Each structure stands twice: as structure tokens, then as C-alpha cells.
Amino acid sequence: MPKVSICIPTFNSSxxxxxxxxxxxxxxxxxxxxxxxxxxxSDDTLEIVDLFKGLNLxxxxxxxxxxxxxxxxxxxxxANGELIKLLPSDDIIYPKSLEQSINYFSQYKNIxxxxxxxxxxxxxxxxxxxxxxxxxxxxxxxxxxAKKILYSGRNPLxxxxxxxxxxxxxxxxxxxxxxxxxxxxxxxxMRILEHEDIFYxxxxxGGFRIHPSSLSTNQNEYKQYQDWxxxxxxxxxxxxxxxxxxxxxxxxxxxLKQLYYKIFS
Length: 265
What we know:
Elements: E1 4-10, H1 17-25, E2 32-38, H2 45-49, E3 57-61, H3 68-77, E4 83-86, E5 92-93, H4 97-102, H5 104-107, E6 111-121, E7 127-132, E8 138-140, H6 142-152, E9 163-166, H7 167-173, H8 184-193, E10 197-209, H9 219-230, H10 240-264
Parallel strand pairs: 1-2, 1-4, 2-3, 6-10
Antiparallel strand pairs: 4-9, 5-10, 6-7, 6-9, 8-10
């Protein structure tokens, strides 16, 4: 069995999937499998994926578009490795991403995942912001980070592509909430971190692509984040007044992100 399962959900990903898979191919750590679950693409995504047959690749095509959350879970459900790397098809990871992340699981036996910083890249894969990060390198208590996520009105931990997660932790948390899209990563991080700890690497080990069609800039999606805060009923104490403040933070962060994406994507 491979140590790592790199899970890549796709949907009409022909513009970026070659670069994404090529970044996987260039990994210095080689004990991995690649799982692609395609959400009924209508473009040539799967033809491009087929160019990487020698990559210990398994491809599954859905007979309909099941939505982002279900496709994420379908990819992870096929994982045979002890560790899951869920990589969105428009993002990339740098050659030493797996090598530099995996070692911390042996050093810190009780962590559930290793997260890393990233560079922000545009449509042409040009770095527009180097080392986008909110944490220093080190071990973190899960509940402390969960509080930071909850109160900040943003995602200081980072997106799925910059995480390496124990499969057992993913399963114990119940996987991604398939009713969510924009907040499905934050929601999963919270459910994991309320019980388990992490290690963070403040070094960019991948590129997060920003473009005008990103979920981050969609008006309805950011409102989903506000609703998620309103309905939060986890183990971390949060008052109605704090929720109102966080909802305001989410609004202003969204407007700032829209402006940034418009200028640089």
C-alpha cells in the first residue's frame, strides 16, 4: 500500500490539470498513489489526465455532477494510503511538498495533519504573493487553532491543497460536509481540530491559484460562510455578539479579496 494518497477532484479542469498533475509527478517523495474523481466534465480533462498513466494513477468518472463536497469525499474514499493529500485541480504543489511534510508525523505521533504555507499564483502561474501565511513553523494545539479560525472570519490555516491528513482523522471527523462548498474545508478543519493537534510549516510548498471564477469571490459563497458562523454549535464557546462581529469581518474580508483577485488574477 502507498503511504500517501494524492486525491484530485476534477470538473472541467482542462486549463490547469496538466500543471497540477505535473507538479505531482515531480515530487521527490515517491511512495504515493494518485486518485482522480471527475465530476462529469464536458471538456478534455480526462484526455489530459490520461497522459499521466505512469503515475500510479486511478481515475473514476462520475455519471453526473455530484457537487464539490461529494466529489471531494469520493476521491478520499478511494484512498489506500495512511495519509491523504487532497489537491484541487487548479492548484500545484512544489517538488518537496510531500518529502518535507511527511517527516513530522513520525516526530509528533499525536498530530492529525501537517499544514504548510503557499504562494498565491495567477492564471499564468506567476507568483503574485510569496509565502502567504498566518502561522509560524511549529506544533499547535488543535483547539487553539480552531479558536483562531472561528474568531478570525477567515481561513488562517489554509486550503486542502496545503494539508497532509491522517486518513483515520479524516474518517473520524466524518469527511467533508457535502452540503457546503466555500466553507467545506474550514468546517472539516474545525471538526478535526476540536480533538486533535497539528504541525504547521511556514514555508510555501505549493501554489494556490486565484482567478475571477474562484469560489472565494462568489457573492453567494461568502454568504454561506456567514450562515456557517450563525449556525455554529461546536464545542468552542462563542456569544451572539461575537458571531455578529465575525460576520462583519467576513463581509469586509470578502470585499478585500474580490478587489485583490480582480487586480492580480
